[in-house]
Amino acid sequence: MARLQRLEFVIPEDHTAVFEAALQQAKIDLSKISSLTLGPHCDFMVACCPNIEILSSNTQHWLRTQRAKSELDWIYDSSRAHFLPMISAASKCPNLSHLVLDNWWTTDTIEAVLVNVPKLQWLELEGCRYEDGLSKLLPLLSQLKNLRCLSLPEPRYLEIGFRLPEVGSIRCSNRAGMRKYFEAERGKATAKVAKTVFSVCKANLENLWIGGVRVLEVVRAKNGHPVRTKWYLEDAEKADKLTALDLTSQILLLDGR
Length: 257
Known about the structure:
Elements: E1 6-9, H1 16-26, E2 35-38, H2 44-48, E3 54-57, H3 74-90, E4 98-105, H4 107-116, E5 122-130, H5 134-141, E6 149-152, H6 176-201, E7 207-210, E8 213-220, E9 226-231, H7 236-241, H8 247-254
Parallel strand pairs: 1-2, 2-3, 3-4, 4-5, 5-6, 6-7
Antiparallel strand pairs: 7-8, 8-9
């Protein structure tokens, strides 16, 4: 165990208390672990791995928990019952630089990241919905002054006014023209998100991913000034026109107004 560097710790929720007590008694040396992946309610493992550089949630189980009072409580339980304790525990990991988190994102969950791990360099905000909208979360993300890499989900999850048809409707139709239309709209939405995020976080951001695809790369000098900016967008000409918009106009675009 002394040489173990990567650990994925996912156990049934009703066994977490037993494992926590056993680990405290065993005093196992996990100081060499640099990458830790956790299931729900396993935040006690963070204290066992004080030198981690990467901390991630287990996406298979993270948004669903047996401890939620009802199915409608998933969003609140994932945000508070095990997400917030894990982030709070991460505040005691001085080498932590990379967070990969699957969550229902709200301003309070982003604030928890900002308060507990303000020196993050890489943040992957996975999940299926941004409950407060990306426009309200961006001012908080801009306060992460060391943030170099940011990963966001597809535009349809970001509450920016872009929606795809539900399964079984036009999106699944054989009409190639309609599918092409919605692909084009998704491309435009991606460009809006990319340009707006960069306008808010451009002081330090070097890499931006949206929907698992890199859309921006910034090469910086030692003093932090950008030397080269490269966009990976299908319609770069239209995307570049967005840079002329002021921040207020871009936020309105994100809100779908």
